[in-house]
Write a structure and sequence with these properties.
The protein is mostly beta strands. The chain is about 0% helix and about 60% strand. The protein has strands at about 5, 10-15, 20-25, 30-40, 45-55, 60-65, 65-75, 75-80, 85-95, 95-100, 100-110, 115, 120-130, 135, 140-150, 155-160, 160-170, 175, 180-190, 200. The chain has a 20-stranded mixed beta sheet that branches. The chain is elongated and about 45 Å long.
């Protein structure tokens, strides 16, 4: 590791977990909080209850290893790189988030500048709420939700594959060229959908 921690338990400077190393919390209350940190680089394994970015709007983080956390929130710029894995309870984005690897998550709350699920990347989850500005699922990107996709506000661009149990759309615009939406149960549209995306709703009904 390369960091300092102040009296509040907030990490400052730079924070790096090397390959083969691990940072493991010992209780359900353990929280990793980043203050004036320039960057977080994880090549090993981080397992804590919560990871919170705080006080530094210029921080960037890159995960090349594995992160296990009940909550990950308020990180300004975050890349989950190729081959990296994140196992997260609640992922709440507040800056620019890019996924090149795999994310296993209970809920994603997109409230950030941009969220990009890149080609070859996978998101497995239950719920996802898209808001903020742009949410993009690139060609070759896969998102599988066992419960509900809420596309709330902003722009949702899907050129990959998104499957969900239910989909409720109130977004300003949903668009794409090669994208596919496969909805197992219920679909409600209160927004705008254009482009050449394919939508399959096998069993329509009330959401």
């Amino acid at each position: 590791f390369n960091q300092t921690v102040d009296a509040r338990g907030v990490a400052d400077g730079a924070f790096r977990v090397n390959s083969g190393a691990s940072l493991t919390g010992t209780s359900i209350y353990d929280t990793l909080v980043f203050g004036q940190v320039d960057y977080l680089l994880n090549y090993g394994t981080i397992s804590v209850n919560s990871i919170i970015g705080w006080e530094n709007i210029n921080m960037f983080a890159k995960n090349y290893g594995q992160i296990n956390a009940g909550t990950l929130a308020e990180m300004d710029d975050f890349n989950n790189e190729i081959g990296a894995v994140m196992n997260i309870g609640i992922l709440a984005t507040s800056g620019n988030f890019s996924n090149y690897g795999q994310i296993n998550v209970d809920m994603i709350i997109h409230q950030s500048e941009s969220f990009a699920n890149k080609s070859g990347s996978v998101i497995n989850g239950k719920f996802m709420v898209t808001g903020g500005n742009d949410f993009t699922n690139d060609l070759g990107g896969t998102i599988v939700l066992t419960d509900t996709l809420f596309s709330a506000t902003g722009l949702l661009v899907n050129n990959g594959d998104i499957s969900a149990g239910n989909w409720r759309n109130t977004a300003d615009t949903v668009t794409g060229v090669t994208g596919k939406f496969c909805i197992a149960n219920n679909f409600q549209n209160f927004g705008t959908i254009n482009g050449t995306v394919d939508i399959c709703d096998a069993t329509p009904g009330q959401l």
